[in-house]
Amino acid sequence: MLTIHAADLVLPGGGRAPVPGGAVAVRGTEIAAIGPYEEVAAAHPDARIRRWPGVLTPGLRQWHGLWLLTRVYHPDPREADELGTAPVSGPAFAALAPDAGRMAGSVRRGIQRMLAHGTTHVGLGAGPAEVRQAVARAGLREVPKAPVLAPPVWDGPDLDPFVEGYDLPGTVHGPLTVGGLADLAVFDVADEADLVTRGASTCVATVLGGRLLYRAR
User: Cα torsion for 161, 162, 168, 170, to the nearest 10°?
Assistant: First the structure.
């Protein structure tokens, strides 16, 4: 079935103009059309419609996926009384010294939290096989790790790429193109500037290869 993802503003990337009241039509794993909602819907009258608030963009690339999955512990909700809910890193991670079993659960939760930040592509480099397998099972796409040692602003990696100082072109995996893979994200913000300011925690949906893998509502 073809699905149309409609949003207040579509930012295709690749230097193309934003599309107010835009839509992306997805057939299977690929993008079938991009344009104003009225035009896309008229061309595909039998499509399922998903309406999202805010801005639709290409999925994001998490430059520091290896670090976030191997040098950070993502607590289980049942550990909230002991550890809180925020990722545990730095000296606190070293003191926690989680064993392999706990880290396996942490990796799964870390991947889900990446999806909840609009991430579709993860930089791993020469990461452990079990981490790469977990990423592949979740459907995320593995890409080369960051070509630089640190982003423009660095206080350790964050699940939100915008916290590290990247703009939208420096964060998305690539432009949305007709015939390309349907890897996209939607954020409940007003426009690109608002997204960069408020960050990827505003994500309301993440679609990877046409599959809706995360939705906040």
Answer: -50
Task: Give the tens place of pLDDT for each residue, 37-90.
Answer: 999 999 999 999 999 999 999 999 998 888 899 999 999 999 889 998 989 988
**Ramachandran area for residue 161 (φ above 0: left; ψ -120 to 50: alpha; else beta):** alpha
Q: Residue 200 gets which letter from DSSP?
A: G
Model pTM score? 0.91
Could you give the CA distance from residue 89 to residue 96 in angstroms, rounded to a whole number? 9
pLDDT tens digits for range 12-28: 999 999 999 999 999 99
Measured distance CA(127)–CA(132) in Å, rounded: 7
Tokens coding 52: 């999202």
Tokens of 31: 């993008």
Residue type present at position 178: V
Domains of the chain plus CATH, in order, are: 2-59+174-215 (2.30.40.10), 61-164 (no CATH)
Q: Give me the amino acid identity at 185.
A: A
| 3-class DSSP state of 104 | helix
